[in-house]
Amino acid sequence: MTKYALRKITIAIDGYSSCGKSTLAKAMARELGYIYVDSGAMYRAITLNFIRQHVDISNQEEVNNALQDIHIHFQKDKEGNNHMILNEEDVEAEIRQMQVSSMVSQVAAIPQVRRVLVEQQRKMGQQKGIVMDGRDIGTVVFPDAELKIFLTASPEIRAIRRYQELLNKNQDTSLMEVRTNLAMRDRIDSTREDSPLRQANDAIVIDNTYLNEAEQLQKALDYALTLIET
Ligand code: DC
Known about the structure:
This protein is of the alpha/beta class. 49% of the residues lie in helices and 16% in strands. It has 9 helices and 8 strands. 2'-deoxycytidine-5'-monophosphate (DC) is lined by residues 17, 39-40, 43-44, 104-105, 108, 134-137, 185, 189.
């Protein structure tokens, strides 16, 4: 229990790729004693499975059949970090690799995939006390969320941060490759027909281009605490 665990609300954090949504969501959940769900990891796990099984994503029947054999859930490690488990296998590291990043937006645009995952995400949020980040959390998954945050940062800053993150994980990539991947995902995610990325009308915008992690957390917590304490 934390000092803030007074009233449980639902917190939705949306935004473009690599603008720090997971960092913020994780920190808010820790401060508030809430559950944290990285919905992008779920789309990534499905994508990894499709790549491994050579699923033709333009074939609806193949996609439906593949989805029936996929079971995903999160499991905490000793440090309390969530790991994505795909059919009993820990795929947390593999889903972050460029091979998955370059396919995930195409897979996330498939309506059957979204239907399955949105249902699972809503179940996770039934008891409230949850921070979930993604692209459609405030608009589709939890349209009634008490707090919706739309996070933004300049494309260049996002690419540099992401590149740094991949370098720290010893992944072989270039800033140019990261920049191109982010631009492609932003375009596909915001122009797809089913649940495109957009700012919910009642979302609060936080631009973190010039904010550090502590500053952005404080800003977001201030909004959350106003709601929780009233
Ligand atoms: O947050 P992320 O970069 O790990 O997400 C990976 C991809 O999954 C992203 O390019 C779009 C998709 N996604 C989505 O369509 N809806 C969500 N709620 C979360 C992610």
